[in-house]
Design goal:
disordered N terminus; six-stranded mixed sheet; 12 strands; Rossmann fold; alpha/beta; 15 helices
Length: 371
């Protein structure tokens, strides 16, 4: 860690690297020893240390971020040029405390890669800036401090919306048809995914290098009148399942054909509702008889399994289409690499947006999902 720390202390500290907030080690003894040794060597050479702060490694997309971060950190430590560690934080308050503790140590030659838990972390990130500590932001980009980052790494949230809209149009969606959007939360991520969807339909942005055809464009009045937003589903499968069951409880909604879910977990919530017993059979029959189309995003392997034909086949054979737009948690490795590149003196793009792709049953074999 700190350049002036004794080697023995370094080994003890680094044995605690890559741990969750509860403090239990997530690495084997041999892996921890390897990390400590590489960190000790890096410190002895007076090189930089990279703190990587993520959400907990528990489940879903955010949990997989920590898994991919650990893989990249092991690579950095193995290279011997720099040292690194992952600190997982179950809530924003803990993450803020960790950032403040890093600053308070007064260490030299340190940098931070942070996946902000929420926007309240802005004040702590500003403290990093004020302390002259370089940082890279990942996924949740906080506008108030974005200009101070070495790099802001994120998936193309507008592209996710555009990709879903383009998929609907490719399957015959006409201007003014009913669309239902299941939103993730109230953050900028959801705002951008909403915007990308409507901007594509208006002909303002491209997806995969192409804009919507002129005769398929929507007007703003058509968008305002025919797109319904769920409000925050909190990225929750169970909340979406319950909301969809309620939606189908009104027979007038069974004719909605186009469902844009802003996360694979939300798309799975729709599928679970259709498979379960919370919707009357008559409503299910009417809904599926309309050959509805469902999109998600993220890369959840469970949904990729649906695309591979491994599950929910009794439902998907009745759908007009189902797909997922890529937004892989492995992008955290790009964020860490951006910091490494910056330390190496290489030019780094500050607004680093990673393009997305539509994953369907036709190309799902080309993609690796996360659990």
């Amino acid at each position: 860690m700190k350049k002036k720390l004794l080697a023995g202390l370094l080994a003890g500290v680094m044995a605690l690297s890559l741990t969750a907030c509860g403090g239990s080690s997530t690495e084997s003894t041999s892996e921890s020893a390897d990390t400590a040794q590489s960190t000790e060597a890096a410190a002895a050479e007076g090189t930089s240390h990279i703190y990587v702060l993520t959400a907990p490694e528990d489940h879903g997309w955010t949990g997989s971020v920590a898994t991919f971060a650990k893989e990249k950190v092991a690579e950095v430590n193995g290279g011997g040029k720099y040292s690194a560690e992952v600190i997982t934080c179950e809530d924003a308050a803990y993450q803020i405390t960790q950032i403040e503790d890093i600053i308070a140590k007064g260490e030299k030659d340190i940098t931070v890669v942070v996946q902000p838990i929420d926007d309240t972390v802005q004040s702590a990130i500003q403290e990093l800036v004020d302390a002259g500590i370089p940082y890279v932001a990942f996924d949740r980009i906080i506008d108030g401090v974005a200009s101070s980052a070495v790099s802001n790494v994120k998936g193309d949230n507008e592209g996710i919306g555009a990709g879903s809209a383009a998929y609907f149009v490719s399957l015959g969606m006409k201007p003014g048809e009913k669309v239902y959007v299941y939103e993730g939360d109230t953050s900028s991520v959801t705002t951008l995914r909403d915007q990308g969807f409507t901007e594509y339909l208006l002909g303002e942005i491209e997806f995969d290098g192409q804009k919507i055809a002129d005769d398929a464009k929507w007007t703003q009045d058509q968008i305002d009148a025919n797109i319904t937003y769920s409000g925050a589903m909190n990225w929750s499968r169970s909340d979406t399942k319950a909301a969809f069951e309620t939606l189908m409880g009104d027979s007038s909604n069974t004719d909605i054909k186009w469902f844009y879910a802003e996360d694979d977990e939300l798309a799975m919530g729709i599928l679970e509702a259709l498979k379960g017993g919370g919707i009357e059979d008559a409503a299910k029959e009417a809904f599926l008889g309309n050959q509805p189309v469902i999109t998600g995003c993220g890369g959840l392997d469970e949904l990729y399994g649906v695309l591979r034909g491994e599950d929910y086949t009794d439902i998907t054979e009745k759908l007009g289409g189902i797909m997922s737009v890529t937004y892989s948690p492995s992008m955290i490795q790009t964020a860490i690499q951006d910091m490494v590149d910056s330390l190496d003196g290489k030019e780094v793009t500050q607004d680093h947006v990673i393009e997305c792709q539509n994953v369907t049953s036709d190309n799902v074999a080309d993609f690796v999902g996360f659990n």
